[in-house]
Design a protein that fits this description.
It is built from 17 helices and no strands. The protein is mainly α. The N terminus is likely disordered.
């Protein structure tokens, strides 16, 4: 259901000026989709350049290092160890570090500090206490872009607590009112933070959150996206956030998000463009909303994108599960067998939601 517009559109204020392929081989534990990538590049779509990748070199797979890092940052905040938080954020920004699977360390940093323990399920009192800590951080470091952006994104999350997770017609008047107020605080906090000397890619992602919650016009949201990628082209979360905005359940039309995937994969080109196509596909193809966009996207390009991910950044539990789910929905048994053989029983609840969904798909693939 399309969300109700929450607040009158405000102008975008930014800290910077605007500047199809073959199936994978049959399953086998020692087969890498990186091998598939090399075959896919021989058959790359017309117009896709072979420019050198600008990303970090491939990293080795490990057991959810991002989860350990997220918890570490959460603990620093709980202890009000603001000095360590400042250093960690500065390092993540300057080094543009990524975890296996391509996830930016900076993104995981903010996941660790913008929500109280319990996340969206935390109580109102827990959210208030969490926001109070973030305000103390900002007072201790008044020139900190990190503290300001974290506070803004916390207010955005606090707004969704008031709204709830139901459809728009299930939200009470008080729920809308509180969400409006809290998201507007988030917007003003980000606008204020734009005047600081230090800049942060997550500023843009946080403002993309605001644009969705406030129901900005599509042109303004697109302008924000373009400013974001001009500031930091490699921060792929910008593409995911704008794709979400374009979903029919929010503010897009049927086929618009799929067209965006084609646009950006060709615009960026090469392995990075293929990687972005895969990432956008993971936004469009989840089990949570009963929508199925897979039939309107190129499955060979999704496979190419996963192969590019694996080659550029390595892979992870999350990305394996996402690709396994899409391979199952696409009825590509060889690709699904390969993924489930690698996953084993290490299923991801955020991807499958129910263990039975994972087990049913795995049973189909491995039979």
């Amino acid at each position: 259901m399309r969300a109700t517009t929450l607040i009158v559109l405000c102008a975008v204020l930014s800290p910077m000026s605007i500047l199809r392929a073959q199936s994978p081989p049959a399953s086998g534990d020692n087969t890498s989709l990186g091998d598939v990538a090399r075959e896919l590049r021989k058959k790359k779509p017309a117009g896709v350049s072979e420019t050198a990748a600008t990303a970090m070199p491939p990293v080795q797979n490990s057991v959810e290092p991002e989860k350990a890092y997220r918890l570490e940052m959460s603990q620093y905040l709980a202890n009000e160890d603001f000095s360590r938080l400042e250093k960690a954020a500065d390092a993540a920004r300057s080094q543009k570090s990524r975890f296996p699977g391509g996830i930016w360390k900076l993104s995981v940093f903010y996941e660790g500090v913008t929500k109280p323990p319990g996340g969206e399920a935390a109580s109102d009192a827990a959210w208030q206490a969490h926001i109070a800590i973030l305000k103390r951080w900002g007072s201790a470091y008044p020139q900190s872009i990190t503290a300001r952006v974290a506070l803004a994104d916390a207010y955005y999350g606090y707004g969704w607590l008031a709204r709830g997770s139901g459809f728009a017609n299930t939200v009470s008047d008080d729920g809308w009112k509180l969400m409006n107020e809290r998201v507007e605080i988030a917007r003003r906090t980000l606008v204020d933070a734009a005047s600081l000397k230090a800049k942060c890619p997550y500023w843009y992602e946080a403002m993309q959150h605001v644009s969705l919650a406030q129901g900005w016009q599509k042109a303004k949201t697109r302008a924000l996206f373009e400013q974001a990628v001009a500031f930091e082209p490699g921060y792929y979360q910008f593409y995911r956030e704008y794709t979400n905005f374009l979903l029919p359940r929010w503010f897009g039309e049927d086929g618009e998000a799929e067209a965006f995937a084609e646009e950006v994969s060709n615009r960026v080109g090469g392995k990075e463009g293929a990687f972005l196509y895969f990432e956008i596909a993971t936004v469009l193809n989840c089990l949570c909303k009963g929508e199925d966009h897979l039939t309107t996207m190129s499955w060979p390009k999704i496979k190419e994108g996963y192969a590019a991910l694996e080659e550029l950044y390595g892979t992870s539990k999350l990305k394996k599960n996402r690709f396994a789910m899409m391979a199952s929905k696409a009825a590509d048994k060889p690709a699904a067998q390969l993924m489930f053989a690698q996953i084993g029983n290490d299923w991801d609840a955020g991807t499958w939601y129910k263990r039975s969904a994972f087990e049913n798909a795995k049973a189909w693939a491995m039979q």
